[in-house]
Amino acid sequence: MSIRFSQKKVFVLLPMAALLLALPGCLDWFGGGDKKPAPMAKKSPARDMAMPGADQAAPAKGMAKAEAPVGEDGSKVLITLAGKPLVTEQSLQEEIERLAGSSPELKEAMAFMGPQIKHMIADQLILRAVIGRYIDERGIDKQDDYRKSLECVMAHARDSVNQQFFVKDIKASASEREVRNYYDKERERFLVSQGGRKTKGVQFDSDALAKAFLRKVKSAGNDIVKAAQGEDGLAEKVRDFGLVHEDKIGIDPTLRAKILEVRSGSIPGAEVIEVDENTYWVVSISGQEEKKYRTYDEVKEQLKRILDEQAVAEASAKKLDSLKEKYGIEDFRETPQEPGLDLPMGDEELPELSDETLPAA
Questions:
Q1: H-state helical runs in 222-295
Q2: Spacing of C-alpha 299 from chain mean position
Q3: For position 46, what pLDDT does the model report?
């Protein structure tokens, strides 16, 4: 069989190869571990006919594609190199499981990608074999700069694995009480809805006009929209403020404050609110909602993981400080000053933003 690579495909796949290199347990791809190649297919006349070697001619163009052989692991051979099995169904699955087991984040990403991940990993195995053979044939791995680059990569990989297992060795976690206390203290972080008062209103420029319309609203059962429909052009002036709460934007702050001052016993209801001597609002408050939060049971598992990670980070920092003292680390450096951010500013003044310039939320 023939394998064709486009230049574009090679450069798309190479970044993933770099990712795999950084994963623990993947260094054996580069000769650093005990990973074995895919088992050789069993010798049989059928195999010799289906897989032409160096001394056999490839099937003529137009002939039916030969059936894939079976490897020694009992699974179908997916990819061959110079007539020998490179990847079998079983070896590919084992490779996928090995990679997934090396990183929870990668496992989640692989699950999201679905069947495509098999092709991507198989492509990486092909790249490894093809590029590896090329490097061997050209003797590139004997060059000084190649060896220096490899030593640098291996050193960084060792540092990464050392840090990973150093943190893994730290035993620290948050207690159930600490998790609960954090939830109670930081409850606003889990806010789902601000709640507020369901409000609609119409603006007038005189107290007399506002009070006259208020009587019509009350006659309509506090339905301000229904009352406005009987007035010429007034229905288009009805504003739906949605839920009005203390952080609501897109509404005059004075109007917002006075809506919130309305006694709960007067809701549902309607009334006139004076903002200033030329601004009067007839508002209809049809109901109110309390703030809604995600419950403790909904967030406790996620919160426990986060606080556990924080506990490990704090314990790791303390452990490092004690190890520095134990191993005699002395630091004679001067603490560098943090760079300041000095941006040139013109003489132009920025326009002020008010609630009225913002859309209703």
A1: 224-228, 253-261
A2: 18
A3: 34
